[in-house]
Automatic annotation (TrEMBL):
Protein name in UniProt: Catechol 2,3-dioxygenase
Gene3D superfamilies: 2,3-Dihydroxybiphenyl 1,2-Dioxygenase, domain 1
Key words, A-Z: Dioxygenase, Metal-binding, Oxidoreductase
UniProt xrefs under Pfam families: Glyoxalase
Statement: the UniProt record of this protein carries the keyword Transmembrane helix: no
Biological processes per GO annotation: L-methylmalonyl-CoA metabolic process
Ranges where the VOC domain occurs: 5-139
Regions that span the bilayer: none
Amino-acid biosynthesis recorded as keyword: no
Native source species: Halogeometricum rufum
PROSITE patterns per record: VOC
Single GO MF descriptor: metal ion binding
Length: 141
């Protein structure tokens, strides 16, 4: 059996440029690459007839975050909720979650202000422009 190694964490977005701007400018991730993939083999692989994917790869401290905008786009969108079966979120650490929260632009949505969990970690969930959840965590000492 082949040993598996992590390559990326991906999420589909409706507007790649807007998403890249958020992940780069608000979260501070570095853009590693931008590219487009299309053709019959790609369409077959992703199970979408006539698909073209516009991709951006960003670096989150050694974890590759992949954002992809598809054409054609499927407009089935359900509000992201952390307790929905199959829900996903990206978790990023910071040294000061309160400082991060205070620095957020006014138009960035959050589920609440920073909270301290039973484990002593401080957490905050923000939404990217697509409504995807991102957990910002200040781990307990």
């Amino acid at each position: 059996m082949t040993d598996l190694r992590a390559h990326h964490v991906g999420t589909t977005v409706s507007n790649l440029d807007r998403a890249v701007e958020f992940y780069r400018d608000v979260l501070g991730l570095s853009v590693l690459d931008r590219f487009t993939v299309s053709g019959e083999q790609f369409s077959t692989a992703v199970g979408v007839d006539g698909a073209t994917g516009r991709f951006a790869h960003l670096d989150a401290d050694g974890i590759r975050v992949e954002l992809v905008e598809y054409d054609p786009e499927r407009e089935s969108r359900e509000e992201a909720a952390v307790n929905r079966v199959g829900a996903k979120h990206l978790g990023l650490t910071v040294d000061d979650v309160d400082g991060f929260y205070e620095s957020l632009p006014d138009d960035v949505g959050t589920l609440s202000g920073p909270q301290t969990t039973d484990t002593g970690s401080r957490i905050l969930f923000v939404r990217d422009p697509e409504g995807n959840l991102i957990e910002i965590i200040e781990p307990s000492a």
